[in-house]
Amino acid sequence: MQPLKPEDKKAALENNPNAAPEDLQEYERLLALRFTRDPSNPGNAAPFAAGTEDDLEERLKALHRKLFSPENRTASRGA
Amino acid sequence: MSVVVNVLRSGDNSKPNPYTIAVIANPALETPWRSSIFVGDPILNSLAAFQAAVVYIESNLFANLPGQKEKLLADLSIQPKVRLVSIFDDTLPADTGTSLVGQDDVSNILVARRDAFAPHLAKYSIQADVAYAVSASPSHTRASAWFTSDDDTGAGVAFTLDGSEFSHRYNYAVPGTVAIHATASSLTALHEFGHAASSYTNGAVHDLYVDSPTGLNNKVGRPIPPSFADYEGTVYKSDLTRDGLGYPPGWRSFHCELLDPSCPAVMDNYFLSRSGALACQHDAITRRFLRDRILAKIGRP
């Protein structure tokens, strides 16, 4: 997976003051982790840190909302 | 409407199935990924943009970008043996059989629809060990790759890693696949090749810019031991400090020694290199492993 450029990382955090660097780090980790599981044979993979593939996708969705959703950004600016 | 198939490098013509890399203009995008909704990829509106992407990918893979230090495929025992083909075909419908790339719904990542690649390439009588699908998605620009799923029922060249036996398999069950944007630059094509050319069962080359699981180029644990791995009787040192970048607090992963400690590894965040991304090289074990794996495939019967 292509790494983030420093300016993209900075923009992601500055656009949403509620998002912490560790949120972005965990989001990036989970995105990369997706590709370590063989879709043809899910047994051929390093074990996920926690839970199943469904858990991973749910965690990704939650982090994506926290980091990037426009509602979050608006709410953050108004807070 | 046109079909343009170019053989940019003929590779080893003495082989019935030479080591092959394919670059394909993605006929259709799945929007979002895993939705079964397909639209034509804008790359089909611009043969010139696709050809520019092919030039970039070839240049990066074969170390022809100005200042590029990583020369894995430029090795003279490898370079003449690698077949490189490109395919641009704007005559196809947008459906599940032609869509090679999906747009992730929780990121701007382009995801290869890996199972569609081999059947798609077969339409042009092409088999590829690693295949890139080039997209001009208006919203998603970040590349990604799936490792190769090896044919573990077939033959290969045996090797040992930390006392266990593995094999550089000659053939794949599913080829290594990359989804990449037409505007990609820097070391992106080479970074994704590192993933795609590696294997789920015989050595996975992971991202080093996140706290990754154990693989060929990444291990997990603290404290970091001085020795990273024993590959084929050669003991490689650990990178104790992730030179230049440092391991973030809380990480448990650690890496192999770098060939050039002044720059991050190709599989790390090359955008953070103080000497410029193109100065980055693979770490020591990744370079050796990928070289051996490609040479094994080049030498297959």
C-alpha Rg of chain B (nearest Å) = 19 Å
Oligomeric status of the shown chains?
Answer: heterodimer
**Residue windows where pLDDT falls under 50 for at least 5 positions of chain B:** none
Counting helices, strands and paired strands, the structural category of chain A is mainly alpha
Strand content of chain A: under 5%
Which fold name fills CATH's third level, the topology of chain B?
Collagenase (Catalytic Domain)
Q: Quickly give the structural class of chain B.
A: alpha+beta
Strand content of chain B: 25-35%
Round the Cα radius of gyration of chain A to an integer and report it.
Answer: 14 Å
Largest sheet of chain A: none
Helix content of chain A: 55-70%
Average pLDDT rating of chain B: 97
Order of helices and strands of chain A: HHHH
Count of extended strands of chain A:
0
Main sheet: strands, sense, barrel of chain B: 6 strands, mixed
Q: Count of DSSP E strands of chain B?
A: 18
Chain pair forming the biggest interface: A-B, 28 and 37 residues
How far from one another are the termini of chain B? 39 Å
What is the count of helical runs of chain A? 4
Mean pLDDT of chain A: 81
